[in-house]
Write a structure and sequence with these properties.
The protein has helices at about 1-15, 65-75, 110-120, 140-155, 170-175, 180-195, 215-230, 255-275, 305-315, 345-355, 475-480, and strands spanning about 20-30, 35, 45-50, 80-85, 90-95, 105, 125-130, 135, 140, 160-165, 205-210, 235-240, 240-245, 280-285, 290, 320-325, 355-365, 375-380, 390-400, 405, 415-425, 430-435, 435-440, 450-455, 460, 465-470. The protein is α/β, with parallel strands linked by helices and about 475 residues long. The chain folds into two domains: about 1-30 and about 360-480, Sandwich (Immunoglobulin-like); about 40-340, Alpha-Beta Barrel (TIM Barrel), CATH 3.20.20.80. The strands form five sheets. Strands 1, 2, 17, 18, 19, 20, 21, 22, 23, 24, 25 and 26 form a twelve-stranded mixed β-sheet that branches. Strands 3-4-7-10-11-12-14-16 form an eight-stranded parallel β-barrel, surrounded by five helices. A hairpin with an 8-residue loop joins β21 (about 415-425) and β22. α7 (about 215-230) crosses α8 and α9 (about 305-315) runs parallel beside α10 (about 345-355). The longest helix has 21 residues, at about 255-275. It is globular, with a radius of gyration of 23 Å.
Length: about 475
């Protein structure tokens, strides 16, 4: 009776948030065979290269802050990619002595600060080298060698190296053109450099980090035929839905805009499969809107619709890593650039990392994906939640104003854990509630993020919301071996 009462209270509370009509939806997961797999490093984060020079002071980010460290550890294990447009203007110098351009030079001291932080919070560093250091038309590796030598002396680990950022738009960015085939040759030069440098023989080469694949298909294809096919260990491209300068609130819950990601990923896969069918493909830099995000929107609750849907689509279509732009700074960070407080997408990301396991399943719903967008995985085994292999985690986005009642005919009579996220004060709120309880740090410690255990096969949620549900007793064979 207690479980049924809690279910009734939850449903009543959620319905009170919206006065719109309800929609009944039946949801089924195709659990007989996984369509893809992800791992614990599926979600990573970025910091922009322009923060690296000493003159930038990391944009105010305090790596020693207990709050920053606690929030970073909450995402581990995690890739940290240092890249972006600023990286194509950077030069490494072991010391500041003799440095003439402090705004475009990063020193050993800055590299030490970064690597100490990465080690402290159990992140894995990916770094983008300057592709515009060129000599007679080819990439000049001289400065890269200096950085690698310094890195070796210090004993730091690198999870991967990139070369350049968005070379397909170099003409617009710098009035410089480097062809796709030339970038392929440059990447192969980087690969040969690493193979011949003790300690870096197996360091992954990651790229080419195109700004977009749609419209850059020829550049992308030429990159591989020019030598990139033998060089890259991870293939990357970037994705943003729209321009942050002109984005509207309605864009963030627009299913048609969400679906454009499918086309972008499919285009990338079509190109890469011709020469590199087995090489993992990543979203190497991605967020809601380019040009730094949409002010007052991209760091608020509503941004979670695009973020969670992107994670669902990327996992379902076989991408292996999604690197979120960014952890800090601009209008789309995971933590506030003044207070370091976690923003709504931070909590969404933490829940994803805690609940979502490796195997990805197809989902069928009795309404189209403009009303409900649904994704399913095996649940990540968890001592803290008591989840064992065989459990199933689903996550949902409800982009309309309609109240949605969901039933799950394949899991009759089973308990279900609900982790539902709603805004505290509207779609542009910086505060998010879990099952109607605002989420907060307490003494720089992440909360437990407990679910509501329900004993009903029908769950009702308000429109314009999203969240996760777990079937801990699903006993799905495809999830029992993970």
């Amino acid at each position: 009776m207690k479980g049924a009462l809690s279910a009734l209270l939850l449903v009543t509370t959620f319905i009170s948030l919206t006065g719109t009509a309800g929609v009944n939806v039946s949801v089924t997961v195709s659990t007989t065979q996984a369509v893809s797999f992800i791992d614990d490093l599926f979600i990573g984060v970025t910091l922009d290269s322009h923060l690296l020079p000493a003159s930038a002071h990391w944009g105010g980010l305090d790596f020693n802050s207990p709050k920053v460290q606690a929030l970073a550890k909450g995402l581990s294990p995690c890739y940290l990619r240092i890249g972006g447009t600023g990286g194509d203007n950077l030069t490494f110098a072991s010391t500041s002595h003799g440095t003439t351009d402090a705004s475009h030079t990063f020193t050993g001291a800055s590299w030490d600060v970064l690597n100490t932080f990465v080690q402290d919070v159990n992140w894995k560093l990916i770094f983008g080298l300057n592709a515009l250091k060129r000599k007679e038309g080819n990439w000049d590796p001289t400065n890269a060698k200096e950085l690698l030598q310094y890195n070796s002396v210090k004993g730091y680990q690198l999870a991967g190296l990139e070369l350049g950022n968005e070379p397909d738009i170099f003409p617009q960015q710098y009035n410089i053109t480097v062809s796709g085939s030339q970038m392929g040759m440059d990447f192969y030069s980087l690969k040969k450099l690493l193979r011949s440098t003790p300690g870096y023989e197996t360091t992954p080469v990651i790229g080419p980090d195109l700004a977009t694949v749609t419209g850059s298909e020829a550049f992308f294809a030429e990159f591989f035929t020019g030598g990139g096919d033998k060089a890259v260990d991870r293939i990357t491209f970037h994705h943003y839905y729209t321009n942050g300068d002109t984005a509207q609130l309605s864009n963030f819950t627009d299913p048609k805009l969400m679906d454009t990601l499918v086309t972008n990923i499919q285009t990338a896969l079509d190109v890469t499969r011709r020469t590199n069918p087995l090489t993992p493909v990543w979203l190497g830099e991605t967020s809601s809107c380019y040009h730094g995000g949409a002010r007052g929107i991209s760091d608020r609750y509503v941004a979670g619709f695009l973020w969670l849907d992107k994670l669902g689509i990327a996992a379902r279509m076989g991408l292996k890593v999604v690197l979120r732009q960014d952890f800090y700074v601009d209008n789309y960070p995971l933590i506030d650039d003044e207070t370091f407080d976690p923003l709504p997408d931070y909590w969404l990301t933490v829940l994803y990392k805690r609940l979502v396991g490796g195997a990805v399943f197809s989902v069928e719903a009795s309404v189209d994906n403009s009303t409900i967008r649904a994704y399913a995985h095996c649940t990540k085994p968890s001592i803290s939640y008591g989840y064992v292999p065989g459990s199933v985690t689903m996550y949902f986005l409800l982009p309309t104003d309609n109240t949605i009642s969901m039933t799950f005919p394949q899991f009759p009579g089973q308990p279900v854990d609900v982790f539902w996220l709603t805004p505290v004060g509207g779609l542009t709120s910086k505060t998010v509630a879990l099952n109607n309880n605002p989420i907060k740090l307490v003494n720089n410690t992440l909360p437990e993020l407990k679910p509501n255990r329900m004993e009903t096969n029908t769950l009702t949620f308000p429109g314009k919301s999203f969240g996760f549900i777990v079937f801990p007793e699903a006993d799905v064979a495809a999830c029992s071996s993970q």
